[in-house]
Specification:
This protein has 208 residues and is an alpha/beta fold. It has helices spanning 20-28, 36-42, 56-66, 86-92, 106-113, 133-136, 154-163, 190-193, and strands at residues 5-9, 31-34, 48-51, 72-76, 98-101, 122-125, 143-147, 171-176, 184-189, 202-207. The chain has eight helices and ten strands.
C-alpha cells in the first residue's frame, strides 16, 4: 500500500456547506467511495466510484486493492471525527496512510440553527447505538444533544429521558434534514416529543 486514504467530511451534503479544501480533494479523486447520494452530488464522471454498502469487509478489501495504484477518497457525512466510518477505517488501515479532511457536523448545524452554543453540551449519538447512562442522566440545566435514527427516534428517546427523571416540560429541539430543502426544525416539550410522529434521523437537543 503506497497511497493515501483520504477521509473527507462532506457536511450535510449540500454544496454550500462543503469546505473548499474538501471540494478540491473530491475533484482530484481518481477513486472515490461514498453513499449513493454523495457520489451523485459530488463525484466527477472521470472517477472510479464505489458505493458504501452493508458489506464492510468487502469495501475494505476494495480500498486495500486500490491503494496499491491510487489514492482513495472516502466521503462521509458531517465531520469524519464524529460517528463516521473513520473509526472502522482506523482499525483496518495503518494511521500513516490516513488523512482526514474535516466537515461541518450535523450537531454544529443544529446548534447554529437554534442559535445556541454547545461548549457546555453533552454531545452523543444514539444512531445505531446506546448512549451511556451518564450521558442521559438528568441534571438541572444540562444540555444534551444526540443523533437519532429510525429506532432510537425522538419519541423513543423522550420516553427514556422521562423515565430517567427529566421533567415533562423540558425544552426539546428536533432538527431534521438540516441544510437541505426539506429542513424541519421544531421546538417542543419532552412530554410532547414522547408522542411526536414524523422524526427519525435528526439531531435532538434537550435543554434541562
Ligand atoms: C452516522 S451519523 C453521522 C454523523 C456525522 N459524522 C456528523 O458529523 O454529523 C448519522 C446521523 O447524523 C445525523 N444527521 C446527519 N445529517 C443530518 C442532517 N442533515 N440533519 C439532521 N441530522 C443529520 C442524524 O442523526 C443521522 O442519523
Amino acid at each position: 500500500m503506497e497511497h493515501q486514504l483520504i477521509v473527507v467530511g462532506i457536511g450535510p451534503g449540500s454544496p454550500e456547506y462543503l469546505l473548499p479544501v474538501a471540494r478540491q480533494v473530491i475533484d482530484k479523486a481518481r477513486v472515490i467511495v461514498g453513499s449513493k447520494q454523495s457520489l451523485q452530488a459530488f463525484a466527477h464522471d472521470g472517477s472510479e466510484q464505489r458505493v458504501i454498502g452493508g458489506d464492510l469487509p468487502n469495501l475494505f478489501q476494495y480500498i486495500d486493492d486500490k491503494l496499491f495504484t491510487s489514492d482513495v477518497v472516502v466521503m462521509v457525512s458531517g465531520d469524519p471525527g464524529f460517528y463516521s466510518l473513520l473509526a472502522a477505517l482506523k482499525k483496518q488501515f495503518p494511521q500513516k496512510f490516513i488523512k482526514v479532511i474535516p466537515g461541518i457536523s450535523s450537531f454544529q448545524l443544529a446548534f447554529a440553527a437554534i442559535g445556541e452554543y454547545w461548549q457546555d453540551a453533552v454531545v452523543t449519538s444514539m444512531h445505531g447505538r446506546m448512549a451511556s447512562d451518564q450521558d442521559l442522566a438528568y441534571k438541572s440545566g444540562k444540555k444534551l444533544a444526540t443523533l437519532t435514527d429510525s429506532q432510537n427516534n425522538p419519541p423513543h428517546i423522550a420516553r427514556q429521558l422521562l423515565s430517567l427523571g427529566w421533567p415533562g416540560e423540558t425544552k426539546v429541539w428536533l432538527c431534521a434534514n438540516l441544510a437541505r430543502p426539506d429542513e424541519k426544525i421544531r421546538l417542543l416539550t419532552l412530554g410532547e416529543t414522547a408522542d411526536i410522529a414524523g422524526f427519525s434521523y435528526c439531531v435532538m437537543v434537550v435543554i434541562g
